[in-house]
């Protein structure tokens, strides 16, 4: 079987994401906490070397599970269902609802406690946070890495 097609990478990525979410849900059901580590992609070649990964194997997500430190944090506000559940077709995001959610997130982050080593508190709305995340997430070496591992060639 030729697994160099991008479709196989997509299938595996979706499966890995579902598995990771189910693992976190299972951990939380046992009273544990967890956090996904997005930095896996930032140093993907080095991580692959450390893990001695063979061709056709790539790290997609990091997940740390353990006992939560301190009090249970306040529940983070989520986008309103009306902004993420669409009926039969894509609909542009409601800018008024987005402005309200941005304000909700500003208040959430203002009141969120800061823990060492993160002593600088960044207070931004959701839209600004997403924009920053997208700018940080650019990994120009990713296509070269995926090709080296045997993926995304076709």
Summarize the biggest pleated sheet. Answer: 2 strands, antiparallel
Output the strand order for the largest sheet.
1-2
Per DSSP, what share of the residues sits in E-state strands of 2 or more residues?
5-15%
Compute the number of strand runs.
2
**Class from helix and strand fractions:** mainly alpha
Output the radius of gyration.
Answer: 19 Å
- Average per-residue pLDDT, rounded, comes to 86
Counted by DSSP, the helix tally is 6
| Secondary-structure element order, N to C | HEHEHHHH
Distance between the termini: 14 Å
Principal-axes geometry comes out as globular
Unreliable sequence segments? none
Notes on the protein architecture:
This protein has about 150 residues and is mainly alpha-helical. It has six helices and two strands. It has helices at about 5-30, 45-50, 80-85, 95-110, 125-135, 140-150, and strands spanning about 35, 60-65. The chain has a two-stranded antiparallel sheet. It is globular. The protein starts with 5 loop residues before the first helix and ends in a 6-residue tail after the last helix.
Question: What's a concise summary of this model?
Answer:
It is built from six helices and two strands, in the order H-E-H-E-H-H-H-H. The protein has helices spanning 6-29, 44-51, 81-84, 95-111, 126-136, 142-148; strands at 33-37, 62-66.
How is the secondary structure organized here?
Elements: H1 6-29, E1 33-37, H2 44-51, E2 62-66, H3 81-84, H4 95-111, H5 126-136, H6 142-148
Antiparallel strand pairs: 1-2
Key attributes of the depicted protein:
about 150 residues; mainly alpha; about 5% strand; globular
